[in-house]
């Protein structure tokens, strides 16, 4: 086999020789030998083939020294730009969101819900645990960048070691049988204190840490969703705020539900035990408490029972955590506003300068409107120049495709443009500029 510099490490020699070009790479011009690869290995390779994005760079070796084991070993890892991995990230985003909202309800309101609702929530829980387990296995085959930030780790053993060292511990919390262990402990020690019941609830809610993978899945799927930085930040803030309010509400409700004393915050609000109040009304009141605690308002109509140490400690923990969450929300909001207005700040400054010059020099209104209209159109043209600067940074193959898609509407109006080669057309388009 003979090939040039850039290539996809997850493609076999046979696939490499059958591809015309590789995105961001060099076309393989000759194939001397195509080793025999088993069918099941080729099937796994179909999952790993990169479909877009610059392929990671491999170290060049002697082209006439071929090791079949090395070629097959690379088939076991796949690049983060893989289309099927992006599809799996879409599925995981949906699973994470659904399970993040359903699991706290199952943990905290299980004694107040009907058996049918509990069974449905348990089915969602089992499906989520299965998907989390599959995701952990797939991450052992997902290529990661080396410490130098340039090369990609292609060994399954090395990728697995890096995953175990970095994110496996947190992911294991989402598949650990904490619920089974908690039920066993409660069956063995039915007279356990309220404090230990709250501790078991906190341990079971550790699965909520899986929400941190929503950001990585969103980063992988953003190429298909075409989300801007502002849209991703707004989505992240909305999800984070909703999950925080929902989790705090369920946890605060569980404090009143699991209380063995007759006096709890639920008794103080409704004057009845939780079984007579119902899960919906308890959740509504606990959500109300969670929202005004998170926002720092503190109306004071819902509060911990005086003298109840557990409720007081829980409320203090919720207030401290809510302060951190609210600080992150404010910081993200400021970032979104700054990013949204950065592009138009120069145009607004120019518009103000135009109005100031027209007013100070007493320029006629008709001429002033023409000057303002000129700079308005000039601002609109900056988007076209930004598109050209982006195309200049692409590979030759991507330049040809994007140029045809973006500028096809006016390129067809010029008679001699179709006679140019693709690369010549790209250079002509990049050198052209809009005029007012």
Strand arrangement, largest sheet? 1-2
Helix tally? Answer: 19
Order of helices and strands: HHHHHEEHHHHHHHHHHHHHH
Helix content: 55-70%
Strand portion: under 5%
Cα distance spanning the termini: 55 Å
| Structural class determined from secondary elements | mainly alpha
Major sheet attributes: 2 strands, antiparallel
Walk me through the topology:
Blueprint: H1 13-18, H2 39-48, H3 68-74, H4 83-108, H5 115-138, E1 144-145, E2 152-153, H6 156-166, H7 168-172, H8 178-188, H9 194-204, H10 212-225, H11 229-257, H12 265-270, H13 274-277, H14 279-294, H15 309-360, H16 365-392, H17 396-406, H18 408-411, H19 422-431
Antiparallel strand pairs: 1-2
Helix pairs in contact: 4-5, 4-10, 4-11, 8-9, 11-14, 11-15, 15-16, 17-19
Question: What's this model, at a glance?
Answer:
The protein is 65% helix and 1% strand.
